[in-house]
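Structure first, sequence second, as always.
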């Protein structure tokens, strides 16, 4: 049986931030910015289809990929485990090979990152990571687009991550190393980001610091960001995590310690009164609705590049 490697396949995947070179990532952001301001009307997905495999819930990822594919001239097809045979045990590799005969790209949201790698190994078409327990690269590119929309070039900026060392934190770490900005993470002991992401960033000479004190993390930050304390799949840990993260809430006092022009980001969904207070997420420094909108623009740029062969 031939399992194609990433290297000998004629297409690219987007499983993690570093799958696009830094130069391509900035080109992708520039393409997304053209889409954001309405300066892009091409239809590079004309006659093409995206399959969307969702093993977890989604509002933004589903809608932005679906609407984005249609805006680019293509179609998008939502598949949940209740509908597809993967939910009854059909191997991921078989699913990948079958979908490759029907569509031109697969977006997958699931639990184990290894499942996405396996899907990509067997697919003959681009595979896009729409969130795993390990990483959420599409969201981080949307977040970088939002930073650049409000503050200009991300290079040289300082981002403060407060809370869980989760999939979002891991992708922020990867982006910091890749794109050249400083990252200060404040995570409670026991909830650190993935060691391999931290080690890789360190090996790249990235300006990434893991701290315990949120006040230290936000000092001089241009961006303050957080996420839920219990991610999808961790619902039964909610009470334990609420205790562990009690001192990691982003409130007005913490925001006031960042730079005066600092923006607040949250990938959403948010829990007001837990990881963020209502006055912050609904306040003047919050740009979370632009951030949510930017999922559409960055996803379109990713699909245009990977499925529509738009050069970067
Ligand atoms: N931020 C994000 O990925 O949202 P959804 O879970 O709604 O897709
Ligand atoms: N860390 C969150 C992000 C949701 C978009 C989760 O995985 O549930």
């Amino acid at each position: 049986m031939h399992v194609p490697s990433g290297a000998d396949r004629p297409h690219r995947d987007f499983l993690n931030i570093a799958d696009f070179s830094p130069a391509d990532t900035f080109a992708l952001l520039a393409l997304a910015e053209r889409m954001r301001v309405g300066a892009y009307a091409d239809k590079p997905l004309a006659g093409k289809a995206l399959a969307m495999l969702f093993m977890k819930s989604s509002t933004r990822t589903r809608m932005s990929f679906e609407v984005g594919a249609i805006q680019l001239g293509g179609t998008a097809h939502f598949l949940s485990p209740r509908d597809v045979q993967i939910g009854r045990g059909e191997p991921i590799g078989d699913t990948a090979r079958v979908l490759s005969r029907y569509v031109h790209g697969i977006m997958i949201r699931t639990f184990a990152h290894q499942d996405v790698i396996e899907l990509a190994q067997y697919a003959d078409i681009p595979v896009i990571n729409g969130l795993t327990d390990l990483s959420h690269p599409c969201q981080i590119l949307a977040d970088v687009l939002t930073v650049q929309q409000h503050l200009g070039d991300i290079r040289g900026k300082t981002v403060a991550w407060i809370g869980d060392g989760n999939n979002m934190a891991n992708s922020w770490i990867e982006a910091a190393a890749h794109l050249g900005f400083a990252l200060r993470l404040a995570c409670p002991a026991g909830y650190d980001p993935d060691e391999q992401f931290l080690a890789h960033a360190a090996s790249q000479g990235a300006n990434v610091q893991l701290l315990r004190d949120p006040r230290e993390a936000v000092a001089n930050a241009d961006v303050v960001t957080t996420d839920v304390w219990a991610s999808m799949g961790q619902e039964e840990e909610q009470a334990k995590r609420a205790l562990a993260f009690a001192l990691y809430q982003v409130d007005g006092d913490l925001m006031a310690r960042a730079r005066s022009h600092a923006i607040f980001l949250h990938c959403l969904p948010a829990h007001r009164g837990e990881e963020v207070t209502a006055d912050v997420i609904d306040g003047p420094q919050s740009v979370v609705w632009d951030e949510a909108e930017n999922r559409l623009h960055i996803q379109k740029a990713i699909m245009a590049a990977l499925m529509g062969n738009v050069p970067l």
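Margin note: The chain has two domains: 17-135+293-306, 139-292.
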